[in-house]
Design goal:
nine-stranded parallel sheet; binds pyridoxal-5'-phosphate; TIM Barrel; six-stranded mixed sheet
């Protein structure tokens, strides 16, 4: 059976590195959206809570409900605001203010330059006014950076814009509001932490996607994907393996199938440029829905132990490799 091994010591190591940046555990919100980037929602919620994290960020109400016992506050990014003692709802548009239940706790997302969602700077005063009129409880104001993990000036002018947002919110009479803007890359990259919260996703799972010139905080991958052997056969020169027969045996060899495929969220890739496992085993021929073939007889093989390295081979980023993994693969927590 394929399985995902979650290394608790590595997760705690990463959280400790982040706390060194934010100054305290109270200022870290663990981002658990999309099944905790594929790591397992409830498993990671439980571990984060055991570490001492009290805030979480999720995508929808279903995710929030699954982890409500572990956190004091859960920020829900993509749901209409309702009255809920644990949840705070991101407001992305004027429309969302109109839809939220009176006295729902909300956080206003302001678009400072990413132009994905959030209230425009020119709508900010109107939005604050409508929040008051509708009787919503404004807990926080946030923004999201479009280029925290890239060189260039965008991060800095967005930061400046957010400073202006903070002044405008305070001038509008909201004194007890928290402000936050930083994701993993911004938290790792920027010096002095002077905000109320950091929203940490990928760094907690062990990946630093900053380009090389930045000071690199050493993080440790939390997840490892293992597959189990299904069948083994000896093949002769000239025989072909898998759909389309893309792999041609050049000399007699032992080939086994292992129980991971694109049905599990593993990338189908390009059989002409095969993925190589950490042990140096290339995937032979095409990836099937539930199976791959490798030149091995081992009962278990590691498919990847570092999603960033795997992602480079597959032409994507660590986020996509881990998040795509099917929730039905068992997640097994190990202490070290
Ligand atoms: C996903 C997300 C984050 C986390 O980003 P990372 O790069 O994984 O740290 C933070 N804030 C918002 C609004 C997000 O959607």
């Amino acid at each position: 059976m394929a399985k995902i091994i979650i290394n608790k010591a590595n997760f705690f190591h990463n959280l400790n590195q982040i706390v060194l940046k934010t100054g305290s555990k109270e200022k870290v919100a663990i981002v658990l959206k999309d099944n905790a980037y594929g790591h397992g929602l409830t498993q990671m919620a439980k571990l984060a809570s055991e570490f001492g994290i009290m805030q979480a960020v999720v995508r929808n109400q279903t995710e929030a409900d699954a982890i409500r016992s572990y956190f004091s506050d859960i920020l829900v990014l993509g749901a209409d605001g309702i009255v809920d003692s644990h949840c705070i709802y991101a407001i992305n548009s004027l429309d969302a203010i109109a839809k939220a239940q009176p006295s729902a706790r909300v956080e206003l997302k302001v678009d400072t330059g990413m132009h994905r969602n959030g209230i425009g700077m020119d709508e900010l005063l109107l939005a604050l006014d409508q929040i008051k009129k509708r009787g919503l409880h404004l807990v926080g104001v946030m923004t999201h950076f479009r280029s925290a993990d890239e060189m260039g000036s965008a991060l800095f002018w967005q930061q400046k814009a957010f400073e202006k947002v903070k002044r405008m919110v305070k001038e509008a009479g909201f004194s007890d509001v928290r402000f936050h803007s930083r994701n993993s890359a911004a938290t790792l990259r920027m010096g002095e932490f002077d905000e109320d919260l950091a929203r940490i996703g990928i760094a907690a799972y062990g990946y630093n996607e900053l380009p090389v010139p930045f000071d690199r905080v050493a993080l440790k991958p939390v997840m490892k994907l293992m597959a189990s052997r299904v069948a083994t056969r000896r093949l002769k020169k000239g025989m072909r393996v898998g759909y389309g027969g893309d792999f041609i045996v050049s000399e007699s060899m032992v080939v086994s199938t292992y129980d991971v495929g694109y049905g599990d969220g593993w990338c189908r890739g390009d059989s002409a440029n095969p993925y190589m496992t950490p042990e140096g085993l290339p995937i032979l021929g095409r990836v099937s829905m539930d199976l791959i073939s490798l030149a091995s007889e081992a009962d278990e093989v590691c498919i990847f132990d570092d999603a960033q390295t795997a992602a480079r081979q597959l032409g994507t980023i660590s986020y996509e490799v881990t998040t795509a993994l099917s929730p039905s693969i068992p997640r097994i927590i190990v202490e070290v």
